[in-house]
Amino acid sequence: MEKTSKSALPRVAEVKLSYRNRVKPSERPQVTCSADSYKVLQEGCYKSKLEFVEQFKVLLLNRANRVLGVYELSTGGVAGTVADPKLVFVAALKACASAVILAHNHPSGNLKPSQADLQLTKKIKAGGELLDIAVLDHLILTSEGYYSLADEGLL
């Protein structure tokens, strides 16, 4: 068998998965309805950019629907942002989440979901079914309130 030199070996990237949670399980907020999700997102995640740029975030939940963390998936411009479904599940798998709640804001103040919002939600929900990660809701937030696709029967 021929010996190969080290330089002839292919180089590949090292992949590391990590999730750090410094919040005790008993101190994590529990989400039981869309209002709970809105409160968690409004208090810490959207304060400064709600009316400025569109952001897509994911609440990661454990089996008891306690919030493991909030993942900021993307930040776009005034009229939109790109949300890659693969990245939703990268975060969910890293955190060992049992469920997710999708959320994005509309800087325009319009609470109505677009056709693109509905299609993306459907696509992510189907992916979650394959991975046994429930997509519980998709919220659209504005400075004056929120719209829940689950509450409206659109999930």
From TrEMBL:
Single GO BP term: proteolysis
Swiss-Prot/TrEMBL keywords: Hydrolase, Metal-binding, Metalloprotease, Protease, Zinc
Domain of life: Bacteria
InterPro entries registered for this protein in UniProt: MPN (IPR037518), RadC_JAB (IPR025657), UPF0758 (IPR001405), UPF0758_CS (IPR020891)
GO MF: metal ion binding; metallopeptidase activity
Keyword Hydrolase: yes
Domain MPN: 31-155
This protein's record includes keyword Ribonucleoprotein: no
Name used for this protein in its record: DNA repair protein RadC
Organism: Pontibacter chinhatensis
Lineage: Bacteria, Pseudomonadati, Bacteroidota, Cytophagia, Cytophagales
